[in-house]
Design a protein that fits this description.
The protein has 443 residues and is mostly helical. It has 18 helices and four strands. The chain starts with a strand and ends with a helix.
Length: 443
């Protein structure tokens, strides 16, 4: 790893701390944007009366933008650098956030909100294409997975705030039948987001990030040979792309329908039409003062996000003593077990287990990302854009899961798709050393 410009040097650690922390603030922003999606699905089902499959188009618009914009963003970043790429992404992100105003005040249609989310996510795609690989090369490559996991932990903190805020604002009251739809509670967090993003844009306009390149003369070692091979001939990268696609499909699918599943499993209706509420769910609603069952479920997701954040911080520490690929495989097995219990749909029980899925998802994206980019040298920026494009898995899973839920009148059955994603993650983790060896021999 070499650095030029700014105050960084290849030998010191402390000069890299400031740019790392600054870039980590971006993870907070896109964490908030992603976590807000988890309450939007149920919100639009309620107020715009869209089906579960249609509400899955929220994730399609968001992650479709990642697929379409990640590679053009990478080409732009190759020309203008990481910092200007971040600035460009922040401007587009702010524009998308402010587009919620006309969507909610004038158009008041599902399509208008999808368009605003697409623009917002185009900015996120540009930011992530710059920030994720920047963090991986901002220090020794052996610590790339742990370093990215720490940065992603900032992302997790926003995941805690967003469901709580969404539950408090968006689900604060039941809409009266026949009443005009009030989008005001939905607009407020996005208007504030747009303003915050503009402030962050101003800060990034005045600081100078060190220019970092993942290159270096490493001799004729196997790792250096891996740099020379085309990306398509490096199995650890190719299968990393496939795994990330399937993992993101799993993660986004779980996120999108967590509120629906919790409500369906915690509040059940028998053949006579009598409703039974899980005592723990009722207690938690009283504890939080939630106005609606939907708000209570959103607060349950907040607990899941606390576990997610804890997993990010603890995962970075554990990775110092346990190889990243082994952790990835073990966490994948844990989530396969959790999803099987969710699919079993044990009334008043399975919803209590679901939040632990986030604990084990916590390390998966950063570990897969960093492991896939290992030893790619000057190809890192393009490879990173392809990794970001693989996030399109998040655009595919929610509509399919929604269709399964609508077709079988059960949320439990649709979790078969996340199970497949976690199975793929497990296999990639345990096979990674072999894949890396094959990549080194591909030159």
């Amino acid at each position: 790893m070499t650095t030029t410009g700014g105050h960084a040097s290849s030998g010191g650690r402390s000069p890299l701390l400031f740019p790392f922390l600054m870039v980590a603030t971006l993870f907070l922003i896109w964490g908030f944007c992603h976590a807000m999606l988890d309450v939007l699905n149920k919100h639009f089902q309620n107020i715009l009366h869209v089906s579960k499959a249609q509400s899955g188009l929220i994730q399609t618009s968001v992650f479709g933008a990642y697929f379409l914009l990640a590679f053009p963003s990478a080409l732009a970043i190759r020309r203008i650098g990481y910092q200007k790429g971040i600035l460009l992404g922040l401007l587009v992100l702010a524009a998308g956030a402010f587009l919620f105003i006309p969507a909610g005040l004038y158009f008041k249609t599902f399509g208008a909100f999808l368009a605003a989310l697409f623009v917002l996510s185009s900015g996120l795609a540009c930011i992530e294409t710059a920030a994720n690989p920047y963090v991986t090369v901002l220090g020794p490559k052996d610590g790339a997975a742990g370093r990215l996991s720490i940065a992603q932990a900032f992302n997790s903190l926003a995941y805690i705030v967003a469901p709580t805020l969404g539950g408090a604002l968006i689900f604060r009251k039941q809409a009266a039948p026949g009443a005009d739809v009030d989008f005001g509670p939905l607009l407020l967090p996005y208007v504030v987001l747009g303003c915050v993003v503009l402030v962050v844009f101003g800060v990034f306009s005045f600081i100078k990030l060190p220019m970092v390149e993942a290159a270096g003369a490493e001799g004729a070692s196997e790792e250096a040979l891996a740099h020379a091979a085309p990306l398509a001939r490096q199995p650890h990268f190719v299968w990393g792309i496939v795994t990330q696609f399937l993992y993101i499909a799993a993660q986004v699918g779980v996120n999108a329908f967590a509120v629906n599943y919790i409500l369906e499993n915690a509040i059940t209706t028998d053949a006579s039409g009598a409703t039974s509420v899980d005592p723990l769910f009722a207690w938690y609603r009283a504890l939080t003062g939630a106005a609606t069952p939907e708000a209570t479920a959103a607060y349950v997701v907040t607990i899941a996000m606390v576990l997610y954040a804890a997993g990010r911080f603890s995962g970075a520490a554990i990775a110092r003593v346990i190889p990243s690929h082994v952790m990835l495989g073990l966490y994948g097995i844990a989530n396969m077990g959790i999803i099987l219990l969710v699919m079993a749909n044990i009334e008043h029980v399975s919803w209590r287990i679901l939040p632990f899925c986030w604990l084990f998802m916590s390390i998966m994206f950063p570990f897969i990302f960093a492991m896939s980019l290992r030893n790619l040298g000057e190809k890192t920026k393009v490879a990173a854009s392809l990794q970001i494009m693989s996030i399109v898995g998040g655009a595919v899973a929610p509509p399919l899961m929604g269709w399964l839920a609508d077709s079988y009148h059960s949320m439990a059955v649709c979790f078969v798709l996340p199970f497949v994603g976690f199975a793929a993650t497990t296999v990639f983790g345990f096979l990674y050393p072999r894949l890396l060896t094959l990549s080194a021999r591909a030159a």
